[in-house]
Task: structure prediction
Amino acid sequence: MTNDYLLLTIFLAVAVVFPLIPLAMAWAWARLFSPAKPGHDKQSAYECGIESTGPARVQFQSHYYLYALVFLVFDVETVFLLPFAAAFLDLPVSAFLSLMVFLFLLAEGLVWAWAKGILAWK
Amino acid sequence: MMNEVVQVLVPQAILVLTALVVLGLGVSVPKARKPITAATLFGGFLAAGSGLLFPLNGSFLHGMVAVDPLSRMFQLVILALALVAVVYAGDTFPERHFAESLALILFGAVGMMLLCATDDLLMIFLALELTSIPLYVLAAFQKSGRSSAEAGLKYFLIGSVSAAFLLYGFSLIYGVSGTTHLAEIARFSGPADPLLLAGIALSLGGLAFKVAAVPFQLWAPDVYEGAPTAAAALIASGSKVAGIFLLAKLLATGLAPWAGSPVFPGWSLLLGVVAAASIVLGNIAALVQSNVKRLLAYSAIAHAGYLLLGLASGQPASFVAVLFYVVVYATTTAGAFGVVIVVEREHGGSRVDDFNGLARSSPVLAICLLVFLASLAGIPPLAGFIGKFFLFSSALGNPGILWLVVLALAANAISLYYYLIVLKHVFVVPGPDGVPTRSSASRTVVAVLALAVLVLGFFPNLLLSPLERAAHPPAVPAQTP
Result:
């Protein structure tokens, strides 16, 4: 018990120290040997994406999440229907009835969303 | 077995079906507010009737569903409070999505009723979420209004943080005791593991949110003020009853072995400190409020303190007193919110100034408000006085709680001041002339609730003796063939 935790502690210490060594070496190298010469090209975001244009604070339609929610209806339905279908012949009548209740709830949710006009793209 | 579970859950099933029908009505005939309300009320009464007709008790599915006479009583109380909120909704919620608001009230009621009828930590958490999520939506229902959106967001954020507290606490309790069933947790009663105590403290923190006790009280004033008033009434009454009932059950059955003693800290001390802080903060902060809804919120915080005081004493008698008082408090505060709804409709606001001259324009309403506020302040012939009397006198069975009772009595004297300020505006300050009064269903409900507060004040045994019988069943239960 104690040995297990000791091992873990050593592991933790090594895990912390091990990445610190190369970082310290890189930092020391930068301090000692490479003078700082910042320039336009040097600071550009090459190979790490393109230069950003315009501000990041733009408004976007959050309408899409409603579709995602309605999609969830079908998604959850499938998750439960698949094992139900696979074991269908061995199931009692009550299981069939409970699944029908579940499907009814999901279906009513979809019909309600549809009738409320949520599915119409604005 | 399965059949019995279905029978026990018939009231909840009827409520869910009603909610689905109401949603359907909202889509097909969105303008018909009155029929939709009538359908909701009909479903509610049907559920109450079925609960009374099939009083099947017992524990099913390993305690996931557990109904006894006490939880059945509280289910009916919660159902009644939800139906009061449904009537109020007719006078507060906007035309748009009206049916959805009623369906949400019903879903919330189902959650609260399930909360009363389970012995299992997991099911408690699920039912708590089923209660909270409809209430978050109801609080934010007038989403175009700033204050309602703010109320909804605050309620949601603090609620989800406290749900995380609760779940973490439950997981620690499960981790130490190895079971999620309350009675088995109590039977475990091993050495008071620090991990277990941490679990208990975290769970109590999560539930403190539900009853608006001090470290988690911040949401209450903003939600009570910003949410549509019918939603606030449900949050203040039904949700409070469910929360206190759950706390009492959790402490009395599941966590009873860790109540603590003067030499060893347990949940008793923790609850005592929370109660003291709630009583002091609630009563002091209420003194400077100029909005009646905010005032009721701070009064709710103070009352959460009184109720936790009863639970902290750990006496069997005070558990009954707490349950009695929470029903009285919920009835009273639901009525007070009803008065606020009518005043908002007719005078255009809920500031104290809007209550000016209410006694002149609608005297019955003013007298009802007098009954409610005097009951909240604990003035003798009313139910609030009897409730506080039982609560404090039974709590004194534990002598260690004396300091808290003294503090509560002193704070209660302070509370009289701010309740009387409101009554001064109602009865003494002259109001604007020619305010049209409109008859509404809320007025009737308010009168009924005021009558209930009066009756319970004069005949407390109407509620107290059934509660006692349900909480402490006789040793040899009467056998019926």
In short: The interface with chain B takes residues 94, 105, 108, 111-112, 115-116 of chain A (CB under 8 Å). Residues 2-35 of chain A form one domain. The first helix of chain A runs from residue 2 to 32.
